[in-house]
Amino acid sequence: MGLGTWVLVSDACRARVLVDRGTAGGLVELEEYACPGSREHVKDQVCDRAGMKPPGGKGARASVVPVLDPKEVEARKFGRQLAEILKKRLNDHDFKELVLAAPPHFLGILRGSLDETVARRVVASIDKDLTSLTPHELEGRLMVRTRA
Known about the structure:
- By secondary structure, the chain is of the alpha/beta class.
- It is built from 6 helices and 5 strands, in the order E-E-H-E-H-H-E-H-H-E-H.
- Strand 1 and strand 2 form a beta hairpin.
- The longest helix has 22 residues.
- The two termini are 14 Å apart.
């Protein structure tokens, strides 16, 4: 028997999964996930070989510019990680419906990472960062109720 409606509240570095227990129990937090790499400083994520002379001789300048912003890379990686978790949990029949709440950019990353079967279970998307709210505060904001 599945748990009904799940709510994933996330940003690019933290996610919480809550389940809607209906009028008797409200939203209850089940799991929490963190992406440790997303909180690192950019200088810690990009390597630079100190003391190297610029290639090309006089007038040439060397710079270390990542092709993709390291924070963006970590956000995409975290989005894929969450999508895989949701896919597994759906396959285990842990939820029937899914509500997503995340800042607009990360919500796009997350939605783009979802498996088609999980994406079909999404009944609502909220493009706001609600990660700091308690389950009770989230309940008031989302007004999520399991459908009969």
